[in-house]
Amino acid sequence: MRHRTAWQALAQTPLKVLGSSWPWRAFAYLLSGVVFGAITTTVLVMMLVAGVVSLIVAVGAVLLLGVALSGIVVTRFERWRLRLVDLDPVPDPHQAPERAGLRGWLYTRLREPATWRELGFTAVSLTALWWMDFLVLGFALVVPVLVMVSPADDPGAWPLLIVGLCLLPAAPYTITAWAGARAAITRLMLAPRDSELGRRLTDVRASRARLVDAFDAERRRIERDLHDGAQQRLVSLNVMLGLARLDAEPGSPLAGQLVDAQEQVTLAVDELRELSRGVHPKALTDHGLAAAVENLATRSALPVTADIRLPRRVPVSVETTAYFVIAEALANTTKHSHATQARVHASS
């Protein structure tokens, strides 16, 4: 079984951890935390001091705003770095800006609880977590080495050498354990809250509804263009061919060619009408789901009884989806079942 986190690997298979990549991944996680923490602390302290000193001018306000929003950058790197010891990604809790441009982005970010929670995590990370990373690495690696390099000619150094030799094999466990604990703290603080996930789910549903409405509107436009454009032209052409056929000599080659042409145009009109129904049936637009399903039933090769009981017309997206679900179900029933009849029932 593949472990998803360093903590899980250490807890479930402690004897196999030394032969795995988890200690090395944990070491890289803590070392990068120390380096990134030291650099970030230096930069943010300088920005904070410069912002307070120059607060009387606009530059100070910009610097302090940068400090307030620094958690977004820091936690984005932390989420990426967390993959070293936790293979499951932490979702980004931020929502899309309500308005385009920098002002819209700032307006959304400054009003989000996630922004201030990330700033709090940044403060905790810079004041405590990366220092703990440094101490754990020092205790696990530096202390055993310093103990072992004690003067060998000193009789009192031999116990220290033994202690160092005992501490060194424990270093991978110490590093992996703290890396797992630190990753759990990071995930706890950075994971989206239920309210944020609910809001994002609402946004996804609204976006999906807009896509469905846009797709349905496009289907209606195509159906209208086919019905009012190409189909009407073919009907007019069919009438003109019929008139030309009346003027032609009966039994002549021209009359036969006109008959063939008229039959081909009739077939083209029928195929175009069928295609138009498949794109968006006109009966559905004009008369609703019940009439459209009745139309389906009359055109089905299988005897179909339609029982649609709706007190009023449902929303267009629901109506369209229901129609095509019924159409597909009837088509599959006709092709793949041995039924002698079918019944469609819908009510609200």
UniProtKB/TrEMBL annotation:
UniProt GO molecular function:
ATP binding; phosphorelay sensor kinase activity; protein dimerization activity
| Protein name per Swiss-Prot or TrEMBL | histidine kinase
Listed GO cellular component terms?
Answer: membrane
The first-level EC class reads transferase
Reactions catalysed according to its record: ATP + protein L-histidine = ADP + protein N-phospho-L-histidine
> InterPro entries of this UniProt entry?
Put_sensor_dom, Sensor_HK_TwoCompSys, Sig_transdc_His_kin_sub3_dim/P
Segments traversing the membrane: 26-49, 55-74, 119-146, 158-181
Pinpoint the Signal transduction histidine kinase subgroup 3 dimerisation and phosphoacceptor domain residues. 218-284
Key words of the record: ATP-binding, Kinase, Membrane, Nucleotide-binding, Phosphoprotein, Transferase, Transmembrane, Transmembrane helix, Two-component regulatory system
> Any keyword DNA-binding?
no
Q: What is the lineage of its organism?
A: Bacteria, Bacillati, Actinomycetota, Actinomycetes, Kitasatosporales
> What Enzyme Commission number does this protein have?
2.7.13.3
> Locate the Putative sensor domain: which residues?
29-190
The record ties this protein, via Pfam families, to: HisKA_3, Sensor
